[in-house]
Amino acid sequence: MSTSAASAKSTSSPSSSYGSGSYGSGYGSGSSNWNKDGYDSCVQQCVAKFGSPSSMDMPPSSTSSGSSGSGKGVTHTVIVAPTQGVLRYIPFALNASVGDTVMFKWGANNHTVTKSSQIELCNKTSDKLFTSGEQNKDFTFTQVVNDTNPTFYYCGTPTHCQKGMFGIINPPNAYQQPGSASNMMPSIASKNPSTQAGWSYASNATSNNTAAGNWGMNLDMSKMPDWSMPYMAENILFTRSFLAMNPESMTQDGSVDLSPLANNAVMLPTDVAAAARLNNAASGTPSSTSSGASSTPSSASSSSGGSNGAGALASPRVGVALVAVVAAFFAL
């Protein structure tokens, strides 16, 4: 949300153009638990270990619950966890213009939307704070965008942010710069087995969909905290897999439109990176060893209550959804 977004009142609920280039063909020289024979071999291992993609329906939403009002522009939908146990905001990143509305819809229980700074991702900011408080499935929370400054937010439920549940509105752009996701991803993946697994899965999923495979390539990762970089990479990769599995969500100009998905169940990719991270933790294999990542995230505060600004995305009005949902879920 913009740094000057209005405060929201929460109540309980009844129930760009893409830049050119790619990541390249290799992961780097780091060690990994995954077979080096190629993407297909790795993906087969991932699917065998963690399961195949699933098709899911979301029950209809109930009444709207929290709001800072409604803007005069486009409404962008962000799903707060598509299903129980999936700790992601969907989309992970979006571009919004002044006057647009960002509508957060809960797909699972016990999550928050809480504004943070870029440096302290897992702590509430003191600068024009907005927070939903911890809410459950079908809760709705809206914010109107009053400027296009990058805005970071996270889930304040303990440990969720540290596991990668954070998102960005109007993310910084690093088109063809060293700090872009496309340039930093190989090093991150080479040092993190979970990121490498997610990259292999996404590369296989997007092999016939260049637009989906390039999503997020220009996002600026250079100023993100070291600990968060693998999680940011995995959020980007998960988004790519979703777009490839639901190609009707991408328009000819590369922007993303949820409406074609409203009448059908949507394919939700397997969260291979998260599963690999858990597997590595259980086996004692380090899952996050990115260069210089000596710092750790702060404890999450439990809340109560291309050419545009983000050249990584397809359009100033992108709204990527990573959730299996029926039409009623999007209706107020």
TrEMBL record:
Biased composition (Low complexity): 1-20, 53-67
GO terms assigned for molecular function: electron transfer activity
Stretches the record annotates as Disordered: 1-28, 53-73, 281-309
SUPFAM superfamilies linked to this entry: Cupredoxins
Cited Pfam families: Cu_bind_like (PF02298)
Domain Phytocyanin: residue ranges: 97-165
Superkingdom classification of source: Eukaryota
Protein name according to UniProt: Phytocyanin domain-containing protein
Species whose genome carries this gene: Lactarius akahatsu
